Amino acid sequence: MILFVAVDLKQVSALGRKFIWQKPDLCPCCRQSHLWGHGFCDTYFEGFATALPMRRFFCPACRCVIKCRPQGYFSRFQTAIGAIKSHLVARLDTGRWPVSLSSSRGRYWLVALKAKTLVYLGLDWIKRLAEAFDRLCRLNIVPVSVSF
Fold first, then answer.
1. Angstrom distance (rounded) from CA 73 to CA 79
2. pLDDT digit string (tens) for 7-63?
3. Are the C-beta atoms of residues 139 and 120 closer than 8 Å to each other?
4. Which neighbouring-strand residues pair with 5?
5. Which one, of 73, 89, 76, lies nearest residue 131 by Cα?
6. Whole-angstrom Cα distance, residue 27 to residue 20?
7. Would 49 be classed as within a structural domain?
8. Pair (65, 91) in one structural domain
9. Residues 71/6, Cβ–Cβ less than 8 Å
10. Using only C-alpha atoms, what is the Rg of the chain?
11. Distances in whole angstroms, Cα of residue 45 to Cα of each of 60, 74, 91
12. Within this chain, do residues 60 and 85 fall inside the same structural domain, yes or no?
């Protein structure tokens, strides 16, 4: 299970495993209060040369492993949500990808966004992909993931 927490990645990068993570009060699965530390999981994020240690917790009652992840990121994505949207909007407005972005990564996002838009919102939204991105996020759907 992923738990999104408000954390500054620059501080995590600077302090590494010495960064003090806020332990959840309750297990998100079974609502028990006795969570154990369960080590770290190195995770890569755009803008950082090395992997950052993300804290994990373990619930002995339901055996759930909870991985902390910074807010503002989709699960399994290295790039912040705001950056993904701004790159897509730049491409839709200008017809070109920003130079700071790998075009293959951008195409992956755009193809996935079009597919999710067609499936969840319909053909009327295909001309309004920037709005569709926000609408899919509000529906708790990752708009740039190819998995359904």
1. 7
2. 999 999 999 999 999 999 999 999 998 899 999 999 999 999 999 999 999 999 999
3. yes
4. 70
5. 89
6. 19
7. yes
8. no
9. yes
10. 18
11. 30, 11, 22
12. no
